Amino acid sequence: MDQIIAKVFLECVRAIDASELISRVSSTDKEFSFQNWFAVRLERLSLNFDEPSRNAYPDFRLVDFPLGFEIKGLGFPGREANYDCNSQVPSGLHNGRTIYYVFGRYPAKTKEKNYPVYDIVMCHGNFLNADHSYIHKNKNLKGFGSYGDIMIRDRKMYVAPTPFALTDGTERQVTLIAPTGFKCGIDLKHSGTITRIETPRLIRGYYFDMIEHTLTPSYIDNPNAGKKHTFEVFRAAKSLGPTVTLR
């Protein structure tokens, strides 16, 4: 499967080098145009995938391989340090599929119908969050309001850092971040090693005071506190980009 990931990555490199542009879907589109650009990359490689939909995760689920790609378009300049996860915590494994995230930056306020991809970071989901056990669920509570017949819906939204915020050396480059042991092949070259360390505590839950409007977390000790997760950074063999480091 490493070969498939490398092929998809190198196709992104080729497309950017060839100035293959994003085509705007609509004037209000925020991300789907970049998603369509990525779909063309898979089509050029003859990789079959399930059609993306708003409620499906990840965006692209390969048919012939247990592999998925979640696409995150980032207008630049603009919000690029973090992104809304839309009720799905980032992870490197989902329903038996290995998940890679593809963060791409492009002009934020251009009026052009076609515009370039500035840079891309394709990273294994474990780089963002190594926990595969958490299952998101929306819950509700009835009995709110003067007459006790209003329901409160707890719909959690997660906000995670992007690789552009976590690393130095990824701007204006096309970068692949994969777990140690990734078989890169001769078309890729090594451009750094990154280690992320698990936190001492984990949030177990939270309490929201509806009068004071305060949110109070509760914690548990992380059984994997201090565990190191090491990732290797790759670029196309011809790239002259800098070594990537963790901020």
Helix run count: 3
Main pleated-sheet profile: 9 strands, mixed
Radius of gyration: 20 Å
The helix content is: 10-25%
CA distance, first residue to last residue: 29 Å
Helix and strand sequence: HEHEEEEEEEEEEEHEEEEEEE
Q: What general form does the structure show?
A: globular
Strand and helix layout:
Layout: H1 2-17, E1 22-23, H2 32-44, E2 49-50, E3 60-62, E4 67-76, E5 82-84, E6 93-94, E7 97-107, E8 114-115, E9 119-124, E10 139-144, E11 150-154, E12 159-161, H3 163-166, E13 167-168, E14 174-179, E15 188-197, E16 201-209, E17 214-221, E18 228-236, E19 245-246
Parallel strand pairs: 4-7, 9-14
Antiparallel strand pairs: 1-8, 2-3, 3-4, 5-12, 6-7, 7-9, 10-11, 13-19, 14-18, 15-18, 16-17
Helix pairs in contact: 1-2
Question: How would you sum up this structure, described in words?
Answer:
The mean pLDDT is about 95. The protein has about 250 residues and is mainly beta. The chain is built from three helices and 19 strands. Strands 2, 3, 4, 6, 7, 9, 14, 15 and 18 form a nine-stranded mixed beta sheet that branches. A hairpin with a 5-residue loop joins strand 10 and strand 11 (about 150-155). Helix 1 crosses helix 2 (about 30-45). The protein is globular.
Overview in brief:
The chain is mainly β. It is built from 3 helices and 19 strands. The protein has helices at 2-17, 32-44, 163-166, and strands at 22-23, 49-50, 60-62, 67-76, 82-84, 93-94, 97-107, 114-115, 119-124, 139-144, 150-154, 159-161, 167-168, 174-179, 188-197, 201-209, 214-221, 228-236, 245-246.
Keywords:
single chain; 247 residues; mainly beta; nine-stranded mixed sheet; two-stranded antiparallel ribbon; 19 strands
